[in-house]
Here is the input.
Amino acid sequence: MLEIGIIGAGSWGCALAYVLHKNGHKLTVWSALEDEVVMLREHHEQKAKLPGVKLPEEIVYTTDLKEAVAGKHMLVLAVPSPFTRSTAGKMQKVVREGQLIVSVAKGIEENTLMTLSQIIQEEIPQCETAVLCGPSHAEEVGTELPTTLVAGARKRATAELVQNTFMNEVLRIYTSPDTLGMEIGASLKNVIALAAGMADGLGFGDNAKAALVTRGISEMGRLALAMGARFETVSGLTGMGDLIVTCASKHSRNRKAGYLMGRGYTMQQAMDEVNMVVEGVYSAKAAAALAAKYQVSMPIIEQVNAVLFDGKSPREAVTELMLRDKKPEHDDTEWE
Here is the structure.
């Protein structure tokens, strides 16, 4: 049995708390919101963000960050990506040398272009970091529907520790050393999912969805290779797998926000309607900046940014994508 602190009591943090308790571990869950902690203590359910998933009474809930961090064998950082740096900064003084922090959110910081695990390592240099991601909605994990994730870390022993801690008969965990590729896929798929949602909102069909998913993977893969990651990672669970589920599922916040924008909502109106953090909005500018930095063509990312921040209509963005210059599907194609 491990003592584990989960930092963040949203839908994903609570779903993982459910899994880890089922696996026999002792859990302390932290939230910055007193009302949220009171709700969880009284009802053992995240009624606002994960309704219907009853959490075990043995789980401890607190607003005291030191209580959630000090002495724990493992920490799971599950706050939304815009709050990763500020939360890690608050944790720094109570994290011991070598304490393992598993990053389970998805995003790239706009002003630094850093991944979340890089932010954590910068803010808490004494810690060890790992990444856990893949095609997974909290609503399904919390109700024990079969799900597969990837545990990434620089050291194999660290990745295997995360694998052994989370894996059970309904949650299968693979391992990978390519944390950069994992985080690129996990972040950029949210931006592509906004585009897929816009296409749905415009009334386009399965053909358009398949094109966005496939060409989206191509864009993600080009960037991953340019940054030194592996294309196999992006074509696996944390890239292609996560992109499929995020573009297609009724649970996807990014797809829903994109759908509302396709129906005429502004970005802010769509985010207000979703009423949870829409990670793709926060990663879109960073994705475009990375494309420019590494001189990688990412037309879908470019058009999503134009819709989000430049006032372009989703229909106009689709038209521009369709009318770009003719080209082969793969750049290295050889002809007779």
Observations:
- The chain is about 50% helix and 10% strand.
- The longest strand covers residues 128-133.
- The beta strands are 3-7, 26-30, 60-62, 74-77, 100-103, 128-133, 147-152, 171-176.
- The mean pLDDT is 94.
